[in-house]
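Notes to self, DUF4177 domain-containing protein:
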Amino acid sequence: MTNSSEWEYKIVRTADGGLFSGDTSPMEDALNSLGGDGWELVDTISDSRGAGANSGQTALVFKRPKR
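result:
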């Protein structure tokens, strides 16, 4: 089993309006770039304080082995 100290983490926040507002191409490009750098998406955290389905922000949590 891998020791948790062998991982590094990155948190990426989406723009206001949520993850699925508008054109998804920039998000796909960003995810592909992160994946190419060895980052794996492990969790999402939603801020639901706004009104409506497209309000607030989503934080994407990534991890990869320490380099």
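- DSSP finds one helix and three strands in the chain.
- The first strand starts at residue 7 and ends at 13.
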